[in-house]
Design goal:
mainly alpha; 252 residues; single chain; 2 domains
């Protein structure tokens, strides 16, 4: 009887170890995916109170599409190493969802010259979720400095919008003209004078005065916003809107 008990106990421990190893491997992939997701979408990270990337904006270079495709493929390869039968039932469901998400993303890569090359449309405009751009944590000078850096990054982001749109125009893979035509009024709402009326100025109106930041730092912060606002206005008015018009002409 003792031998039978020890045999059963040993088998149970080995079974549990197998479960633990599979679960550990899977959870490592989940963590890798989540950290990648936050880095690739820093505005989203800000919206869920993860503030490590408050000074960044999402990248819209053309090359980043290839980088993301390779990363998704790597994550799929990592998931393939997981022994699904050794996962707890709840994690098997999560495994299936994550695998399907990554697989769908990689399959859609062949259409990257369509939707992804047209980042501006009437439903999304330049700024998809205004609340995501403005971090919820705005109490210190560093918070405002991070936000100002993010706004500078929007200049690069807008230029990369234009580069993608230029490729779509040359490839004749633009959105339908109806979509692009209605995007222009949305862009124009961001062109405001004075800068204090900009939706991006909201933290300075509602939060800055209620902080303990010194007067000199407040002045520096506000001055930085005015400079960034001017650059964004130029990019939106003289470049981005013109490319919307070009896209409309191509798609008619």
């Amino acid at each position: 009887m003792r031998l039978i008990y020890l045999t059963f106990l040993t088998a149970a421990l080995l079974f549990r170890t197998a479960y633990s190893a599979a679960d550990e491997t899977f959870l490592k992939v989940v963590d890798d995916f989540w950290q990648w997701r936050l880095q690739e979408a820093p505005e989203f990270a800000s919206s869920i109170d993860v503030h490590m990337f408050d000074n960044r904006t999402e990248q819209y270079t053309i090359a980043v599409l290839d980088d993301r495709h390779r990363k998704a493929q790597q994550l799929i390869r990592d998931l393939d190493k997981v022994q699904i039968d050794h996962l707890p039932n709840t994690h098997r469901v999560s495994f299936g969802i994550l695998y399907d998400t990554l697989l769908t993303y990689t399959i859609g890569y062949e259409w990257k010259d369509y939707g992804p090359m047209n980042p501006v449309n009437f439903m999304e405009g330049v700024v998809r979720e205004m609340g995501n751009y403005i971090p919820s944590k705005m109490t210190t000078y560093q918070d405002f400095d991070n936000y100002a850096t993010r706004l500078y990054g929007m200049g690069d982001q807008t230029m990369n919008f234009v580069l993608r749109m230029r490729k779509a125009i040359s490839s004749r893979t633009t959105n339908h003209w109806v979509s692009m035509e209605r995007a222009i009024p949305a862009l124009e709402t961001l062109l405001v004078d004075p800068p204090e009326k900009s939706p991006f100025y909201k933290p300075f109106n509602e939060t800055l005065e209620n902080t303990t930041i010194s007067s000199d730092q407040k002045e520096t912060t506000l001055g930085g916003f005015s400079e960034v606002g001017g650059v964004l206005d130029h990019l939106l008015q003289c470049v981005c809107i013109q490319f919307c018009i070009d896209a409309i002409i191509i798609s008619q």
